[in-house]
Every structure is written in structure tokens, then in C-alpha cells.
Design a protein that fits this description.
It contains 13 helices and no strands. The protein is mainly α and 287 residues long.
Length: 287
């Protein structure tokens, strides 16, 4: 059972971040994918955020048809998705993936409870950073108390894991600490909001998509089927997602082309931030 789940994790998640073509300063060049090589760590988080948007993008387009008919730019989430999908391999996104397939390990890593606990702790420090930024920056006031916040749930889960498996709570590892610091240093003024929003969107919505898959796999492998609070949002999660997506689009309506590019160009860094934390589950990060 452990080996089969490890293989599933590797096949479905570990190839999410790979060398790919990315980001340039105009939207047309985003679509043309003029090359800029970026290496992204292995993770299902960002892979699944973009894949989830495949199904949702049509709905976004339908909802915004009237708005975009008179708008200078397409919906920002549509632009983000188009760049993100090209960071995927053909295996992950057969129609849109452009990234090279990385070599798969001969022996898939089987995560332990300690690996999972480190993943949760590092995730926690990043969510703390994001929530602090949202609460401190006036331009981000619409995103306060959205219902997507995860810090309290993670506190509960970390305490549960320590007690259940007789583990000592670890300090945040390099992946989470560095990404949290990067986010805090990123936001100096309102001009930095577009770049920050790329990270906000990818981190929160990836967890809502591929993060659920990870949670189910870890539950079967390590927790005897127990579901963590980290993966519980209540019955109205789709409503919360729609509300936040609408708020992101409303915020982006006031951005010029340069500001929109600042958001889109942060996609690779957002993938690397989330991918580094997921590395604990795939034997990529020592702790």
C-alpha cells in the first residue's frame, strides 16, 4: 500500500515543476513563450492550481464576456492560467504543457509522519506571512476574513500530529522560512500588490485544488484515513472561491499593462515557493 501511494504521488505530483519557457513583458510574448529557462521544484500544489483552472477558465470567460468586451485586457486569472499551464509537462497538461519531463526517481520516496509534519509547519509560516500582509496592506482589505485562511487549522493539525505520533514540533525549514521572508520583503508599497497577488492566488488556490489530493493521499498513507482540518473549509467553499476570484478580478481592473505583467511574471517564483514546501513529501528537502 505504501509503495503504491508513493508511486501515485510521484507520477501525479512530482513532475509539476520542471524547466520551462516563461514570462516576458507583454501579453503577446507570454503567449508566444519566448524562452526563459526556470527550474521549479517538484510539487502538486501549483500543478493542480493551474489544472483546476482548465475547467474553471471557461466559466470565467463566460462570466466576464460582457466586461471584457469593453475592457482593454482579458481577465487576469485567464492570463495567469495561460502562463501557468505552460509550466506543466505534456503528461500533466497534454494540450498546453510545454515543460520538459524530468527524470523520475528509481525508488519513489515514501513520506513519513515527520515529513508531513514538516510540510505542515512550513505551510503554516507561509500562510502566517500572507495573512499578515493582507491585514496590513489597505489595498488588500477585501481579502481579509475570506474564509480561505489556514493558520488556525494548521495550528490544530500540527498539535494533533505531535501528540498522535509523539513528534516534537520542528522549526520551520528552509523552504518555508525563505518563501515567507520573500513574501514579506516583496510588499513595500501598493505598487508591489500585483506581484504579491500572483503568490496569494497560486498558494491559496493550489491548496484548494491539488492540495486536497495531497491531503487524501497522506491521510491514507499516514493517518489511517483521518482528515486534517487543513483540508476543511465548510460547505460553502465554492462560494468562497468565487468571491475571492471576483475580488482579484476587481482589483486587477485598475492595473495597467506593466502592473499586470508584474503579476503574471511572478508565476515561476510562486511555483518555486510552493514547490519547495512540497519537496518535504517527495524526499527533496532534508529536515
Amino acid at each position: 500500500m505504501k509503495l503504491s501511494i508513493a508511486l501515485l504521488l510521484t507520477a501525479g505530483s512530482a513532475t509539476a515543476f520542471a524547466p520551462s519557457s516563461l514570462v516576458h513583458s507583454s501579453y503577446s510574448r507570454h503567449l508566444n513563450l519566448a524562452t526563459k529557462s526556470v527550474f521549479c521544484k517538484h510539487s502538486a500544489l501549483c500543478m493542480s492550481a493551474a489544472e483546476a483552472n482548465v475547467a474553471e477558465s471557461a466559466a470565467i470567460a463566460d462570466k466576464d464576456t460582457d466586461a471584457t468586451a469593453t475592457s482593454e485586457f482579458p481577465p487576469i486569472l485567464q492570463e495567469l492560467r495561460e502562463v501557468a499551464m505552460r509550466l506543466h509537462t505534456r503528461e500533466q497538461a497534454p494540450r498546453e504543457g510545454k515543460a520538459e519531463e524530468p527524470k523520475k526517481p528509481a525508488e519513489p520516496h515514501v513520506p513519513t509522519q515527520a515529513d508531513y509534519l514538516q510540510f505542515l509547519v512550513d505551510s503554516y509560516v507561509v500562510y502566517v506571512a500572507l495573512e499578515e500582509i493582507v491585514n496590513e496592506v489597505d489595498a488588500l482589505a477585501p481579502f481579509r476574513n475570506s474564509g480561505l485562511e489556514r493558520t488556525q487549522a494548521l495550528e490544530t493539525d500540527i498539535a494533533y500530529m505531535c501528540e498522535k505520533f509523539d513528534l516534537q514540533r520542528p522549526d520551520a525549514g528552509k523552504a518555508g522560512s525563505m518563501y515567507a521572508a520573500q513574501l514579506k520583503n516583496m510588499i513595500k508599497s501598493d505598487e508591489d500588490v500585483p506581484e504579491l497577488m500572483c503568490h496569494y492566488y497560486n498558494f491559496y488556490f493550489a491548496h484548494l485544488a491539488g492540495g486536497r489530493m495531497i491531503g487524501k493521499q497522506m491521510s491514507k498513507l499516514l493517518l489511517d484515513g483521518e482528515a486534517l482540518e487543513f483540508y476543511k473549509w465548510g460547505e460553502n467553499v465554492n462560494g468562497m472561491k468565487d468571491t475571492v476570484k471576483g475580488q482579484i478580478e476587481e482589483l486587477a481592473e485598475g492595473w495597467n499593462r506593466q502592473e499586470r505583467d508584474s503579476c503574471i511574471d511572478a508565476t515561476a517564483a510562486a511555483f518555486m515557493g510552493g514547490g519547495g514546501i512540497n519537496g518535504y513529501l517527495y524526499g527533496r528537502n532534508p529536515h
